[in-house]
Give the backbone structure.
Amino acid sequence: MTHPPEDRSLTTPEHTRETSGEHTGRWRTLLALSFGYFVDQGEGQAMSTLFPAIRDALNFGYGGLGRIAGWRNLLQAISAPFWGFLSDRISRKWIIVFGTGLWGLWTLACGFAMSYTQLFWIRIIAGLGLGCLLPPTFSIISDLFGPEERGRANGLLGSIGFVGVIISVLTLGWLVEAPGFGWRWGFFFLGGASVLSGVVIALFVKEPPRGAAEPELAGVITEASAQRFRIKPADLKEILAIPTMWVTFLQGIFGVTPWVVMGAYLVTWLVDERGIPQGRAPMVFAVIIVGQAVAQTVGGLIADWMHKRYPNSGRIIVSQFSIFNGVWMTVVLFSVPLGFVPLMIVALLMGCMIGWAGKGGRDPILQAVLRPELRGTAWAITAAIEGGLSALSAFLAGWLAETYGLTAMMLVCVPLSWFVLFLCWFGYYKTYPADAARLRDAMTRRRQALEEAA
């Protein structure tokens, strides 16, 4: 099916700045949300970084770590659609404050666990609240930044999140070995930071009306008028009827799995398989994350640039380039014996070249095919599917590690998954142009309805 040429008059950089730039304090809001993501991402590394010390104190192995990671991810995934739908119905800001601020106390409570069973239950309860952050954040960003700016906005969020991972990994690694501290202080530190992030978001986030950054709605959308289009349960069928969503579901399975596995096992692999001291092993992971912090922003900017030149395929091309680099670079990382310094160099290069597909590719693609009032819910459904299936990968990774060894498990779960992901992205070439055109038509009709009602 052919479509008429795209009307670029509504998506020029000047018009994007006019629509999204009018929202006062959008960068302040983005930075406050990014601080919440900073803490969230750091918290996600707690178990993998502290595991060598925790297993000695509470006496459990790789399988126990896999069960904690798997069940936590599964419950976080199950709870995400609830948070997403709620954030599309009521204040997105206060959903985030509750889930990051108050629920962070459960992370702090992990530091008081006296057995594996206690740690298991506290950790998975903490996962229920952690699913609340990204669905409303995804929605707010799409209402602060227009279609041609979302790569850089999402990329900045991603970069700050990875800086949180770096600081968390290094701080937790230091706490494990510092006299008078230990792994329990790691959870105390992260729980306190989570509560602080809730305070920051409460003070500095200002919500825009839903749809405020859509070019067609410039000058006509208000908080009151946006309520006319608030999500209803029947709208869930519309989300599932968008072909691009199904490509996203499929690619998400293979895109999340490598990060789940590396997040849970990379530090332990470095200690057990490469013989790197526990105090230095987190440095290798931190170098990968340093590269990722750079890659998120750079990838977002490049994807925005490509989108302006090739609206129907630019983000897809950039994403596939990044994913393919992830395939061959992780094969080198896990199969070629390297000394500490060469290992650090390879890790840094790998980090810089992979990771463009998420914030620069997938997120802006979804924002470009979903009505504003559906975005939190749709993102949460995507996260639920990805998280639920990636939870299975955490269980599988634990079994593979105990049966065949850590190195064999890493090779199966990381580069192989990314190769399948690379193939999945070809589906976007078929679905995305038509779905994006349908949203632009819907926003044009919405403007007409608002003007008629005025």
